[in-house]
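ok, trying the design again with the full structure, not the truncated one.
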């Protein structure tokens, strides 16, 4: 493959006048200023990651992609063609003559797109979540497989997941739309604290029937599991002279009243601390030490049982072929 001398190509823009803050030289990734005429000057904007002298591979880049906001990205055509099944949206032809190819994407989206293809992290650019979504949506347009590009071992996967606390519904919908199961599972845990009533029709449509049902089953599954755990009252202790079986019924009544209060406003994200603080004070009104011990043991077991109801377990359970 013939490689292009980008220094000579760039110099065709005119005499170089280096900016005081962004100098252009043989090894610096900065946009030079070119004087096309004495009364006007043009600035050539170049990516700070994909510039002509970047050493991403042994060979220098052989093409430049130009975004809609006139930022140049110097890349390797073989890398893009290997990742794409449609010649990068038909932009890169087998015998291209133009060293600069226009791409109908903004520089922010194209930057994320190229970082994903090269498997570089673009976290230091701090792209907004909407930009990440646009870049993911652009991947199949350029013939890039989304599932192989966004997987747990890739930087883009980790960057997307970092937005789950602030955009749980949007990220889950994005994962569902492209069947990114490994991304949907950890994202779903952030949806437990969000009422499903906030789910818009647009997001539900993007999720599709399968992933929407998985989300509904996740919420209902944890709710039912908590109800089942709360339903088991403390075991009665052997009768003593001061506390027989009829006397121990007060413990069961107090437990039923406290758990009924919890079930009234039960949530799939109910914390173990809330459970402990609601049930443990019941022992303060008991005179029998054996009853107190039985109550304390039941509260400890309840907290352990609820903490063992994992999001991933329920999600896998309700997403099996028996429920799909």
């Amino acid at each position: 493959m013939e490689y292009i001398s980008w220094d000579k190509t760039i110099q065709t823009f005119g005499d170089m006048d280096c900016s005081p803050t962004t100098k252009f030289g043989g090894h610096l990734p900065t946009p030079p200023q070119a004087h096309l005429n004495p009364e006007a000057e043009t600035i050539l904007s170049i990516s700070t990651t994909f510039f002509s002298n970047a050493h991403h591979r042994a060979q220098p880049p052989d093409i430049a992609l130009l975004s809609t906001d006139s930022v140049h990205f110097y890349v390797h055509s073989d890398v893009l063609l290997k990742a794409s099944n449609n010649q990068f949206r038909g932009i890169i032809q087998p015998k291209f003559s133009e060293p600069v190819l226009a791409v109908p994407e903004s520089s922010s989206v194209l930057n994320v797109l190229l970082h994903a293809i090269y498997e570089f992290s673009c976290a230091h650019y701090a792209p907004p979540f909407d930009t990440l979504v646009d870049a993911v949506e652009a991947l199949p347009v350029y013939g890039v497989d989304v599932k192989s590009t966004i997987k747990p071992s890739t930087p883009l996967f980790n960057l997307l997941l970092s937005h789950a606390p602030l955009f749980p519904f949007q990220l889950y919908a994005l994962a569902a739309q492209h069947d990114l199961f490994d991304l949907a599972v950890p994202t779903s845990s952030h949806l437990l604290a969000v009422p499903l009533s906030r789910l818009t029709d647009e997001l539900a449509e993007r999720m599709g029937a399968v992933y929407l049902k998985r989300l509904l089953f996740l919420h209902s599954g944890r709710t039912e599991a908590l109800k089942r755990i709360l339903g088991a009252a403390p075991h009665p202790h052997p009768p003593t002279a001061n506390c027989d079986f009829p006397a121990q019924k007060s413990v069961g009544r107090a437990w039923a009243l406290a758990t009924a209060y919890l079930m009234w406003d039960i949530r799939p994200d109910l914390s173990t601390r809330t459970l402990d603080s609601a049930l443990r004070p019941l022992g303060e009104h008991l005179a029998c030490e054996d009853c107190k011990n039985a109550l304390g043991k039941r509260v400890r077991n309840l907290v352990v049982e609820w903490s063992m109801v994992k999001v991933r377990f329920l999600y896998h359970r309700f997403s099996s072929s028996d429920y799909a």
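Keeping the full-length input from now on. Strands lie at 16-17, 33-37, 40-43, 45-46, 63-66, 71-75, 100-102.
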